[in-house]
Amino acid sequence: MAAPTPASADWWRQATVYQIYPRSFADANGDGVGDLPGITSRVDYLARLGVDAVWLSPFYPSALADGGYDVDDYRNVDPRLGTLDDFDAMVAALHAAGIRLIVDIVPNHSSNRHEWFQAALAAPKGSPERDRYVFRDGLGEDGELPPADWVSMFGGPAWTAVGDGQWYLHLFAPEQPDFNWHSEEVRADFLKTLRFWSDRGVDGFRVDVAHALAKDLPADLPSQAELEAMDKATGLHPLWDRDEVHQIYADWRRVFNEYDPPRIAVAEAWVNPPSRRARYASAEGLGQAFNFDLLEADFDADAFRGIITENLEQAALSGSSTTWVFSNHDVVRHATRYGLPPNGDEPRKYNRAWLLSHGTEPELDAERGLRRARAATLLMLALPGCAYLYQGEELGLGEVATIPDEARQDPTFFRSPGVDVGRDGCRVPLPWTVEGPSFGFGTGPAHLPQPDWFGKCSVEAESGDEASTLSLYREALGLRHELQADETLEWVDYPAKDVLHVRRSNGWEAVANFSAETLPLPEGVPLLSSGPFDAGELPGETTVWLRRE
């Protein structure tokens, strides 16, 4: 087994974490699907980029009903992605390069192919096998109607019949039956899984849908309308963000603390108000929770300042460090989001209308989107806390909106026709070379089609270009290591309201101009800029790092 690289227990507090969606990172065997040996082959690239840790999206056996988040076996590797030996080799290579590993764990639901769910289907009502999941009797004379009219997160009913008058709950796809976390057997098995991967050298876990595990379903289930009208801020909602979920994570924390250094975890917890994230991020719980506020914000100085201030305050209250993220495997890439006009009440992260038009309406200003993305990222990397990057953003990749319907894979597309095309556009395999059948991703075509413009955004094309986004990320992450200070931040007054000026305790400063106007650059020695600039000037939609002499 691979031994963890030496590090202090708080290595994660201001780390840079790089998310890998394994099926779309690098394909070592040429079958069109990324794999663990492909990741191992690119460890030098990750080291050169300057990341502290990799977050690996699900790599477990799966039918891919939801991109791997439908797990057949929590303690194995999908044979299309490799073997446990390949996993161990990947961990060893990452640790040898000084890079930690965080793996996704999916505790709200398994796949419908999991041996436990297959046993539940074969067992009668009221059996211990069914008690591992959420089964309810249907309505009607013979249970032919669902227990409630609930709608799943992917569209369509949230209850599926099993043929004997009972129905099972799936908050997501029908292939993802929800676990019953009142079951001691479920709780014990996940502790076993945490130890299994921790013993193999895993340094931490990203917890999928962390706010949904604890459920309390009354005898008479509320309607969908009643569910939506319930206050989710009380900790008493039947499905989401119940206070008792933290009892589960207290048990997990005891397992994490068995290791030296303790394993860490970060919660994907979509909660409101944001202050409810603090318990997920506490030292008695998972230790850290995702802050998605910047991911959902427009490119706007006031919005950024409010989000930064609030989340640093929350982090101080919880004792954790905050997290910053602009893109991931579920949302439109931020280089594209920032090149589109605001889309009304819909969260900026989705841009459904633009995707449904195959990227034609409204018109995308890709150049401006990338300029803004570079500026936003350089500001974010100067903030105290943990920065999460998504594979390909360091290349300036935009969303791929031209995927043909017949090539799509995301279940949201198939369950919401004409409403949502899904998340495939941010999951298109990475371009490594200027040419080739999959731009160096593998020796043959990729499992999702890549656009022609990927070649000019490839690692090969950008590595030799000092002005490229890849060069910017490499230089920024290198300087971030050198300049990192304590987790405090000072706001510095600037005459223009569309400029944010921040200072760290060691004199490291970042000045971000959110306007399109060129403004004066404050005094200091320029260290790095998100775009070209002349001495004494701060161009529009540009961030500059400075150091006070």
Describe this structure in words.
With 549 residues, the chain is α/β, with parallel strands linked by helices. Helix content is 27%, strand content 13%. It is built from 17 helices and 18 strands. It has helices spanning 36-41, 43-49, 84-96, 115-122, 128-131, 184-199, 224-229, 245-256, 277-280, 293-296, 301-318, 334-337, 352-356, 366-381, 411-415, 459-463, 469-483, and strands spanning 16-20, 53-56, 100-105, 135-137, 159-161, 166-169, 204-207, 264-267, 287-289, 323-325, 386-390, 490-491, 499-503, 508-513, 519-520, 525-529, 537-538, 542-547. An eight-stranded parallel sheet has the order 9-8-7-3-2-1-11-10. Strands 12-13-14-18-16 form a five-stranded antiparallel sheet. A three-stranded antiparallel sheet has the order 4-6-5, with no helix packed on it. Strand 12 and strand 13 form a beta hairpin. Helix 6 (184-199) runs parallel beside helix 8 (245-256). The longest helix is centred in the middle third of the chain and has 18 residues, at 301-318. It is globular. The termini are far apart. Residues 1-6 have low confidence and may be disordered.
